[in-house]
């Protein structure tokens, strides 16, 4: 087979948090590294790099995906949402507010992935049970909180989002 | 933890996929959901020269009934199958086993064809396919062949697929009246690979067991039927005594060879006994109509 030096870059074009980007990437470029290093979106964290910890979760065409198990080249034409799409320091997303108020984080390393998993859950299920919340975040590892406050934060976020939806 | 360099190909039809498989042979690997292959690449346990990305082949993504067979395209995602009303109705064993498969984010990407082709001995769906006597539709450039699930799995991470072939479809006989099934698993955490799992499918007529199929996972290098335990049940009324005897046969006759810190051989024999008994009782209970 051909040696690695002959490997061609591939031009991709994708939407990240509503903005179009076009880049030439090496096929082996992981989406997590593409987001962080090529686009400077360092909100997506990189933990285990083999799909176990969930801190690199992003939304790929509306569904959560491990950014460390996707090659950027696979995302040509895709729509990606990262934690940066949720809110700003002055105007947080209700899920972010709830994590803040319920102490759903300590060190914060797992938080981007937790928030993205919570977005997916609450978009499909506006009133999840505790068991459904636990199931939804079961592939996001947190080594600080013991999860209880994260579950409470997602529950609180669900309540706030329902209230907002009902005006 | 970065994958080694590779060439990237994205076929836009099954014919192009077959051309690529023929061209690259052992040097090429199919990329489907990537939930097992990409971790192995990140760890550099595998280093394919070429990745052949089949995610554009939407013609391989379907679940449909054809006569007495449920036909599932290889690129169908786990999330689709887990939420499928057709699977729940026609193949309740698969629907139940999906309650044990991975986590939502992994299921969003992972595919049934990739899962079966990867052939992890601790995975649930290979045991389901073996238990239900499913047929693997294997396509090559010059021929399509049907491989019984019991002959498809050849060992840990080994299948009957040749380098220029791919798994295109899984055909599963639909549930018949009087059939009952159950899936039992013990794993370290919800969503993890099994420490031991048992799949059971029974056929009962007038209170008598006409056929019994029991398959194990995570015990040996591949999923397999436990024929000595099945033989105990056929012709019986599936009473407690026969079910207990079948469970004893499962514990005595299967040699646990997948041994790790989640379970040694003695523990797996205990699990074989207990899970077989539980699964048989539950399958018997849901045999009605």
Can you walk through the features of this model?
The complex is a heterodimer of chains A (167) and B (289). Chain A has 167 residues and is α+β, with helices and mostly antiparallel strands. Chain A has two domains: 7-85, Ubiquitin-like (UB roll), CATH 3.10.20.30; 94-165, [2Fe-2S]-binding domain (DNA polymerase, domain 1, Orthogonal Bundle). Chain A has five helices and five strands, in the order ββαβββαααα. Chain A has a five-stranded mixed β-sheet, sandwiched between helices. In chain A, α2 packs across α5 (148-165). Chain A starts with 9 loop residues before the first strand and ends with a helix. In chain B, the strands form four sheets. Chain B has a five-stranded antiparallel β-sheet with strand order 4-5-10-6-7. In chain B, strands 11-12-13-14 form a four-stranded antiparallel β-sheet, with helices on both faces. Chain B has a three-stranded parallel β-sheet with strand order 1-3-2, with helices on one face. The model of chain B has no long low-confidence stretch (mean pLDDT 97). The chains are: A alpha+beta (167), B alpha+beta (289). Chain A binds chain B through residues 1-2, 4, 7-8, 10, 26-28, 30, 33, 48-51, 54, 57, 60, 63-66, 68-71, 73-74, 117, 120, 135-136, 138-139, and chain B through 1-8, 24, 27, 31, 34-35, 38-39, 42-43, 49-51, 53, 55, 79, 102-106, 108-109, 189-191.
Please give the structural blueprint.
The complex is a heterodimer of chains A (167) and B (289).
Chain A: E1 10-16, E2 19-25, H1 31-38, E3 57-60, E4 63-66, E5 79-81, H2 94-101, H3 111-124, H4 130-136, H5 148-165
Parallel strand pairs in A: 1-5
Antiparallel strand pairs in A: 1-2, 3-4, 3-5
Helix pairs in contact in A: 2-5
Chain B: E1 7-9, H1 14-24, E2 28-31, H2 37-42, E3 50-53, E4 63-66, E5 69-73, H3 78-82, H4 85-90, H5 92-97, H6 104-109, H7 112-118, H8 124-131, E6 135-139, E7 144-148, H9 149-152, E8 153-155, E9 158-159, E10 166-173, E11 179-186, E12 196-205, E13 208-217, E14 224-225, H10 227-233, H11 240-253, H12 265-285
């Amino acid at each position: 087979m051909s040696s690695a030096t002959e490997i061609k870059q591939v031009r991709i074009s994708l939407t990240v948090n509503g903005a179009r980007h076009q880049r030439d990437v090496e096929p082996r470029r992981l989406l997590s590294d593409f987001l962080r290093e090529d686009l400077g979106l360092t909100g997506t964290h990189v933990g285990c790099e083999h799909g176990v910890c969930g801190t690199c979760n992003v939304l790929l065409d509306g569904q959560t995906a491990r950014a460390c198990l996707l090659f950027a080249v696979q995302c040509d034409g895709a729509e990606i949402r990262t934690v940066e799409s949720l809110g700003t320091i002055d105007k947080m997303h209700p899920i972010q507010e709830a994590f803040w108020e319920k102490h759903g984080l300590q060190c914060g390393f797992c938080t981007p992935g937790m928030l993205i998993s919570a977005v997916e859950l609450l978009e499909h299920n506006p009133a999840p049970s505790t068991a459904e919340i636990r199931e939804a975040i079961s592939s996001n590892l947190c080594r600080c909180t013991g999860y209880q406050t994260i579950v409470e934060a997602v529950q609180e976020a669900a309540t706030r989002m329902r209230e907002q939806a009902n005006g | 933890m970065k994958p080694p360099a590779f060439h990237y190909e994205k076929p836009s039809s099954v014919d192009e996929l077959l051309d690529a498989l023929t061209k690259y042979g052992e040097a090429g690997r199919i990329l489907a959901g990537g939930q097992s292959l990409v971790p192995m690449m990140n760890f550099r346990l595998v280093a394919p020269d070429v990745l052949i990305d089949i995610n554009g082949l939407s013609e391989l993504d379907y679940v449909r009934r054809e006569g007495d067979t449920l036909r599932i395209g290889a690129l169908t995602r786990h999330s689709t199958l887990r939420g499928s009303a057709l699977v729940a109705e026609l193949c309740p064993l698969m629907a139940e086993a999906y309650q044990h498969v991975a986590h939502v984010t992994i299921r969003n990407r992972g595919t049934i064809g990739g899962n079966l082709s990867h052939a992890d001995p601790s995975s649930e769906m290979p045991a389901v396919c073996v238990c239900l006597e499913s047929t693997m539709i294997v396509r090559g450039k010059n021929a399509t062949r049907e491989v019984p699930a019991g002959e498809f799995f050849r060992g840990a991470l080994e299948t009957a697929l040749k380098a220029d072939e791919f798994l295109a479809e899984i055909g599963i006989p639909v549930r018949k009246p009087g059939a009952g099934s159950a899936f039992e698993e013990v794993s370290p955490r919800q969503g993890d690979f099994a420490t031991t799992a048992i799949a059971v499918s029974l056929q009962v007529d007038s209170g008598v067991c006409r056929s019994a199929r029991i398959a194990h996972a995570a015990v040996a290098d591949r999923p397999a039927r436990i024929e000595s335990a099945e033989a105990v049940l056929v012709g019986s009324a599936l009473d407690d005594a026969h079910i207990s005897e079948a469970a004893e046969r499962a514990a005595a006759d299967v040699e646990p060879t997948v041994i790790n810190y989640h379970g040694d051989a003695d523990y797996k024999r205990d699990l074989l006994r207990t899970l077989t008994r539980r699964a048989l009782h539950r399958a018997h209970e849901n045999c009605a109509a």
